[in-house]
Amino acid sequence: MEEEKPAARPAMAEEHRDYLEDMAAAADRLIGATARDYPGRTGPGLALVLFAGELASALRPDEFRGQLPAPLVAACEQTITQAMLAAAGCLAGVLEAVQALTALTG
Question: How far is CA 58 from CA 23, 26, 42, 79, 89, in A?
Fold first, then answer.
């Protein structure tokens, strides 16, 4: 966002939020349709963490937060939270498997 004109930043943040919302919804559907330990959840979970992190970084006070309307910042924060919850749902089974393997290998 830093290379873009300040006037374009709200639209960019909104677009990122829209994509993140769609990704979180897709992850929720995946969680509902698969077993907790389904390995196909890992990729979407990690993608959510990364994509949400990019938006969260842009909202930092030392970045672009002050250049964005407060309602947009609030909506982005809510979407980031939803995405991180979906990511946790995707990654929970993988983390449990890693913990089990760690316990076995000592």
Answer: 18, 23, 25, 14, 24
